[in-house]
Design goal:
Length: about 200
Amino acid sequence: MKKVIILLAGILISLIFVDSVFAQLEKGKAELSFGASFMGMQPAQEGEESNFGVNISTRLGYFFTRRFEAEPEIIFTSYEHQKAGVILSANLLYNQPLAEGSRIVPFLLAGGGWANSVHLLTQINSNSGEEATISGEGVRNYQILNLGTGARFFLTNSIALRLEYRFQRFFAKKEELDVAGRLVTYDPTRSYHNVMVGLSFAW
């Protein structure tokens, strides 16, 4: 983790010494971006193993105006001891350069989608009945709300470092579970906060 932070800091510092390379955001332009977020959970008790997971995202954006961009997205999720999942979303971005010629372009994001899994590592204090349902004895469908903000830091006219904060709300129907011979109502709906780091390529 320290190496990743040092690398990102080095890239951002180098931007200070680079001539302005702002890529104009133009109607009809396309953008391909890749990103990743990592999650880890410390063991609850001494002697237990820690768990980790990774989310890999791919997005294809299209600027239908100079500021507004449509961006379909697919995220693959992989977690220790769990089945891999997929998240499909369609997002809308509003891009607002800080100034003409600026290498930094902040953006706001909103959208929705579908998933067959949630970020399992944040499920804590679940009893065995809930864990069996969550970890995929059957596939559950989720509807998703995406809200986010971030910025692109242009390294060249067409390549940018992309940093993003993403809030995600996973909605699913409540279920009746048999826990130790007793029916309980389980609500699978969850909210998550993620930080995504990646690169984008425009043409």
